Amino acid sequence: MRKIAIIGGGFTGTAVAIRLCASVPAQLSITVVEPREELGGGLAYGGDDPDHRVNGTHELLVLFPDDIGHFARWYEAAGALAGDPEARAESGVRYVRRSDVRRYMNDTLQTTLAANAHGSTVRHVRDRAVGARRVDHGVQIALASGRTLEPDLTILAFGGQRPSPPGAVTTDARSHPGYVGDPFDTEAVSAVPPDNAVLLVGTGLTAADVVATLSRQGHRGPITAISRRGLLPQPQGEAPDVAALMQRLARPMPRFIERHGEGLTLRAAVRALRRDMAAAIAEGRDLKAPFDEARDAAGWLWPNFSETEKRRFLRHLKPWYDVNRYRMVPQTGAIVAAMEEAGQLEFRVARLAGLEARGDRLEAQLVGRDRTTTCKSFDTVINCTGPKTLSDDPFVGALCDLGLAKRDSMGLGLEVDGDGRVLDDDGRAQESIWAFGLLTRGRFGDMTAIPQIAFRLHRSLPALGRALGGAKRPALREVT
């Protein structure tokens, strides 16, 4: 029996466990290290707020690229739509609650285990990986509880972590009862008094979710949301053709690369995208289609960019990319628009230059686009800057200290090869340590959404299966 440790039990880690049990013709003993009560949730899908929805249609929730309708069938069979009639937008497209993704992953894991003919098992250990030590067959994993694991193969599958406080927030402000450092803490956000004046630091999807939660709670006080550029998530456009998306991801070469060539510089890629968008405008097509084709080519474009270009993208272009990449669902958009129209919600272009505790309030120093500074007091300040990177994770640090892994040059995650094997200090791919999901952004560029994660895992299954004794990847069905 091969022993596998999966570090992280959100969507990615649970998907790895499911796909291994379904694809590897051998008995596997899988341990998933995840501190949350349930598998399948993680930071993205671990909450229960009914107003937090997946920022993509239910058809995009693809766990099995060779069976793209699997989630939709589960959703109908589980009666989820009956319990959430607001999931259906005016267009008829469904945008499901994030908690339903967690339910789906749990149900699918149990169904997969029940159907497994090889006796594979999955054990959930509510703990955290905090250290590592070299052993003959790979790595010994130290857990926060003091226990250790010695698997034959280790898979790193954890994603975003709770946001770090902005540097402008003083120590006293961080400990102030009005400061909410974790926007994913449902209890903390729910405890905000309805008449409080609220400052949201950030204007992305996290801030939109917080606005939706406050609205449902009957919040009456003013809400100000700030960001340096004032960019807001774009609304969802036409419903995507998911079958076509899967076929695009399965292509030997993305269409964007076929049209514009390989080895594009960052400047050339941006110019090519602008030409595609201009053509879409001229033809009366949705602008999101050319953007999505460039997104699908991220795994080709990103590795060819120079270090300088990558840093330039992260510094200047990423905010624009993100608001087009991560779009607001109609339900949340309607709430945000109504509160803004009523004058209760204000978006400002400003950066937080300071936040200090002043008695029972918090005083924020806001620097506008014209570089003038204004001071304004708030009852509540919520950090909506988004999940932080993984550079300070203790387990990642331990692996890097041992030379078993190395961080990518942008600080996005770890260096991996094309299949997901973690590279050691000397750049050698290791058969006993793998990574999937957010940790591999430095290699693949865009690896945060379910379709991209699921498809990358699907493509890696043959290599992962060989490391465990032989597995064949199901072929993608042709879609006409």
Structural class: alpha/beta
Order of neighbouring strands in the sheet with most strands: 8-14-9-10-11-12-13
The number of distinct β-strands equals 16
Mean pLDDT: 89
Distance between the termini: 41 Å
Determine the number of helices (DSSP H or I, runs of at least 4 residues): 17
Query: How is the main sheet built?
Result: 7 strands, mixed
Taken as a percent bin, the fraction of beta residues is: 15-25%
> How many whole angstroms does the radius of gyration measure?
23 Å
Share of residues in helices: 25-40%
| Molecular shape | globular
The unreliable regions are 470-480
Give a quick summary of the entry.
The protein has 480 residues and is α/β, with parallel strands linked by helices. Helix content is 36%, strand content 19%.
How would you characterize this protein structure?
This protein has 480 residues and is an alpha/beta fold. Helices cover 36% and strands 19% of the residues. The protein is built from 17 helices and 16 strands. The protein has helices spanning 11-23, 42-45, 70-77, 98-115, 171-174, 186-190, 205-216, 242-250, 255-260, 266-282, 288-296, 298-304, 307-325, 330-341, 394-401, 441-444, 450-468; strands spanning 2-7, 28-33, 121-125, 129-135, 138-143, 148-149, 153-156, 179-180, 198-201, 223-227, 345-358, 361-368, 373-378, 380-383, 421-423, 429-435. A 7-stranded mixed sheet has the order 8-14-9-10-11-12-13. It has a 6-stranded mixed sheet with strand order 3-2-1-7-16-15, covered by helices on one side. The chain has a 3-stranded antiparallel sheet with strand order 4-5-6, covered by helices on one side. Helix 1 (11-23) packs parallel to helix 4 (98-115), helix 1 packs across helix 17 and helix 10 (266-282) packs antiparallel against helix 11. The longest helix is centred in the middle third of the chain and has 19 residues, at 307-325. The radius of gyration is 23 Å and the shape is globular. The two termini are 41 Å apart. The model is unreliable at 470-480 (pLDDT under 50).
